Amino acid sequence: MEYRDYYAILGVSRDATLADIKRAYKKSARKYHPDVSKETDAKEKFVQAKEAYEVLKDPQKRAAYDQLGKDWHSGEHFHVPPDWERNYQFSSEGFSQGDASAFSDFFESLFGAHFDHSAGRHHHAHRAHQHFTAKGEDIHAKVQIDIEDSFHGAVRTLTLPSSPLDGAQPQTVNLKIPKGVREGQHIRLGGKGMPGHGGGAAGDLYLEISFRPHPYYRLEQKNLYMTLPVTPWEAALGAKIKIPTPTGPIEVTVPANSVSEKILRLRGRGLPGASPGDMLITLNIVQPKVNSEQEKALYRQMQDLMSFNPRGQFGFES
């Protein structure tokens, strides 16, 4: 039989990490998937990549495979080392009989689950009647939604322009957005990933939620944050001010003698849920421009009437 260099098949080094191996397999699977690839040997390369991944993702199989040494090259004539079946025993858990039958003689001789000891090799009596089936790969993507969508819940039709499937058309999906969804959470759409092979089920689509920038407020976890501009007289005298929120306008009370950076907390006005978040409003006192003589006179009057020195901590009188 011929030796299979699984590292070369996936295009990774022998010291590649599991993350490196997973990325290389996904890249090969996308490139050679028979349902999307136009290459004549796509199915063969797809199965080779799956076989290599089956071995290298499993620490036990990989360690045993590495024991064969690094001087072998794909295509070289290979014999199973003596007593291999006694030194190494592997489970077929994680892949179907259909998977195993599509793999090479090299794989079955080392890792197959149906070793015929009396014949000294794997049994292939039913191989011609079996076929390879595989579930499609999952797709991971990010999607931006409006903050209001998380407060109310929504259904949105989305077009994913950068499909991970080589040569595939942009995918349109209906996304149900649950109330209270947070930044970074994932929504799973079953069967919307890469197509399966040989009748296998399609993979899933996982959408990571992020929020579009909003002109008024932002979300952090379940709390809603907003900066509220107020006039000096509103801050000094107190005021009732109407503000927008994702659920509609409300009126807030600015206490008298408020200062910039003061935070007003509206409990339960954040993201909805069993334990809803809060809305935190930071006051920003905005100083108006003084243009007319009448306006300047008003400020001089304030200067004369109010003994206020914001720099008193310096120890100077003015």
Brief characterization of the structure:
This protein is of the alpha+beta class.
What does it look like?
With 318 residues, the protein is α+β, with helices and mostly antiparallel strands. The protein is built from ten helices and 13 strands. The protein has a four-stranded mixed beta sheet. It has a three-stranded mixed beta sheet with strand order 3-7-6. Helix 2 runs antiparallel to helix 3. The protein is elongated, with a radius of gyration of 33 Å. It starts with 5 loop residues before the first helix and ends in a 13-residue tail after the last helix. Residues 92-100, 113-131 and 163-167 have low confidence and may be disordered.
List the helices and strands and how they pair.
Layout: H1 6-10, H2 18-32, H3 42-56, H4 59-66, H5 84-87, H6 97-102, H7 105-111, E1 115-116, E2 121-122, E3 139-145, H8 147-152, E4 154-160, E5 171-177, E6 186-189, E7 205-211, E8 217-220, E9 223-230, H9 232-237, E10 239-243, E11 250-254, E12 263-266, E13 279-285, H10 293-305
Parallel strand pairs: 3-7, 9-13
Antiparallel strand pairs: 1-2, 4-5, 6-7, 8-9, 10-11, 12-13
